[in-house]
Amino acid sequence: MATNVRIFDTTLRDGEQSPGFTMNTEEKLEVARALAAMRVDVIEAGFPISSPGDLEGVQLVAREIRGPIIAALARANRQDVDAAAEGIRRAERARIHVFIATSPIHMEHKLQMTPDQVYDASVDAVRYARTFTDDVEFSAEDGSRSDPEFLCRVFDGVIRAGATTINVPDTVGYATPEEYANLLRLLRERVPGSERVIWSAHCHDDLGLAVANSLAAVQAGVRQIECTINGIGERAGNAALEEIVMALHTRRNHYGIETGIDTTKIYRTSRLISAISGVPVQPNKAVVGDNAFAHEAGIHQHGVLMNRATYEIMTPETVGIPSNKLVLGKHSGRHAIKKHLEDNGVRLTQDELQRVFQEFKALCDKKKQVTIEDVLSLVEAELRTAPQTFALRAFHVSTSSTLPPMASVTLVRGQELFTQEASGDGPVDAIYNAINAIVGLTPTLADYAIKAITGGTDAMGEATVKVRDGDGLFVGRGTSTDVLEASARAYLVAVNKIIYERQHWMSNIYG
Ligand code: KIV
Ligand code: ZN
Fold first, then answer.
1. Residue 152 lies inside a defined structural domain of this protein
2. Do 484 and 421 sit in the same domain of this protein?
3. pTM
4. Other residues' Cβ atoms within 10 Å of the Cβ of residue 196
5. What is the mean pLDDT of the chain?
6. Of the ligands numbered here, which is closest to the C-alpha atom of 234?
7. Which residue's C-alpha comes closest to atom 2 of ligand 1?
8. What is the pairing mode between strands 42-46 and 69-75?
9. Which of 169, 192, 241, 368 is deepest in the core (most CB within 10 A)?
10. Angular region, 40: left φ>0, alpha ψ -120 to 50, beta rest
11. 74 and 51, same structural domain?
12. Residue whose CA is closest, atom 5 of ligand 1?
């Protein structure tokens, strides 16, 4: 039996589907690039029938990404399969992922279909999907709460219709590891043609068991795991990719199973998802949380100093956590910055490097000690702000305990300068009102957070804002040693995204 397990990443589909995690098409492509660099086996890029934006995102990923299989989701009907096929048409390696619910409660109350109708729809959709690609996955939604006899019948039918991967989702996160593994063993034993397909696990985390269930499934013979970065996803989320990969890597003596993942790209990809979504990673999150490798208790620190293995079962370097000990300064040249960024998995073009280097030099004038974390956040701020219709040129804020705060903001668009003054409930509000007056938009501020990236009173502040414009939620991040400037920059990133999105849709409609 194969000793490799495929990592099927569904951050762009099951992860993106959850509230607060929506991404625009460029952001999806950026995530897909990071996933490909990490060497995931399959990228589920979206659910094309669900919206024109989703179809466009899948098409872009299919066109641009080489290496991983690109999958598109479809319900078990021909219209959905057509949309999925359209999405993955230009992929180097394309998969259509057909699903339908098989549990009694879902069939009766959600689908209002009989088991025979579900069987027929499954077989027909898989047979139809095979006319577009040789790689067809079938998922029995709510599989863990389905009747195993019925599952055997449906899986037998879809394998004969051409399914090559069979997925048994624990859609509502209800299974326990023993139950889930037993179900998979039973299915693998009983379903005719079982040895011809790859069995797959897809677990949700409602009881905090998604990773444990996925690992139990591997022990029961599953050779594909579906998961998301940072465990993002519906409700409590999906199984976390980083936890599964590092469990298999760190405990390979126990599992005897390999993944093809470049583990040194894990941390950066986790941060990218957090930056794009504006949803922070909890500090005590396994593998990628800020505290995952921090040793606070004196006795632990002592042990780690004597020998890291006393309290560290894996090293931060293995998952690509940059070393904060590295201090850069005024005298660090462009080559040094390039090299340190490359060591952290970041490759820049000459032009990008030049822009980041200029920001780095400006930061050295404001901050005594610049760390690689600071430089990485400059990279993000500098490269992730595009498309930038308006840029911040200058601002002035006056605030006191007796008068309302006033802000004057100057923005630049191309060669043109725009200045506006405004008051507000606080200095940040005043800045945002001045920006709104210039750009002619009044989005609603849905969330605002500020944090220090590194220690010290001259630490870089990072502001994250989420603004709502109609149905869309737009995230912006900005960094600066001045928190008001960071706040202004973050807001402008979000506002520029709104402008871009509006222009983009207008040009799609009017050509
Ligand atoms: O959780 C689930 O059942 C799913 C399927 C569509 C695979 O996400
Ligand atoms: Zn799911």
1. yes
2. yes
3. 0.85
4. 10
5. 91
6. 2
7. 171
8. parallel
9. 241
10. beta
11. yes
12. 141
Indicate the length of the chain as a whole number: 511
Query: Residues with Cβ < 8 Å from 121, sequence gap 6 or more?
Result: 76, 77, 100, 113
Give which of 362, 363, 361, 266 is closest to 315, Cα–Cα: 266
Last residue of a domain, one of 383, 414, 433: 383
Closest-CA residue to 8 (of 117, 112, 164):
164
383, 412, 434 - which closes a domain: 383
Taking the C-alpha atoms of residue 224 and residue 373, their distance in angstroms, rounded to an integer, is 34
Note the pLDDT tens digit of each residue in 279-336.
889 999 999 998 888 776 777 777 777 888 888 899 999 999 876 556 788 888 888 8
Q: Is the pLDDT of residue 400 over 70?
A: yes
Q: Is 103 in the pocket of ligand 1 (CB under 6 A)?
A: no
- 481 and 432 part of one domain: yes
| Ligand 2 midpoint to CA 104 (Å) | 18
137 lines ligand 1 (CB under 6 A): no
In a shared domain, residues 152 and 78: yes
The answer on 311 and 230 residing in a single domain is no
Name the token pair of 12: 């762009």
Q: How far is CA 19 from CA 16, 23, 462, 471, in A?
A: 8, 11, 23, 12
Give the range of the structural domain holding residue 362, as residue numbers without chain letter: 294-383
**Residue 504 forms part of a structural domain:** yes
* Probe residue for ligand 1, chosen from 8, 139, 222, 225 as the CB with the greatest number of ligand atoms within 8 Å: 139
Number of domains in the chain: 3
pLDDT of residue 453: 74
Distance between CA 480 and CA 477 in Å, rounded?
A: 10
Kindly give the distance from the C-alpha atom of residue 294 to the centroid of ligand 1, in angstroms, as a whole number: 35
Residue 250 lies inside a defined structural domain of this protein: yes
Q: Say yes or no: 124 and 268 in one domain.
A: yes
Instruction: Find where tokens 């668009």 sit.
Output: 413
| Residue from 122, 141, 200 to probe ligand 1 pocket by mutation (most atoms less than 8 Å from CB) | 141
Model confidence at 509: pLDDT above 80: no
**Closest C-alpha among 117, 139, 109 to residue 126:** 139
Tell me: do 317 and 268 sit in the same domain: no
Token pair recorded at residue 462? 């990072």
CB atoms within 10 A of CB 403: 9
Same domain, 83 and 226: yes
Which CATH number belongs to the domain containing residue 26 in this structure? Answer: 3.20.20.70
Give the C-alpha separation, 465 to 448, whole Å: 4
Ligand nearest to the CA of 231: 2
Residue 238 DSSP label = B
CA of 171 to the centre of ligand 1 (A): 6
User: Quick one: DSSP state of residue 106?
Assistant: I
Atom of ligand 1 nearest to the CA of 73: 6
Report yes or no on 173 lying in a domain: yes
pLDDT at 135 over 90: yes
How far does residue 254's CA lie from ligand 2's centre (Å)? Answer: 27
The whole-angstrom separation of Cα 122 and Cα 430 is 57
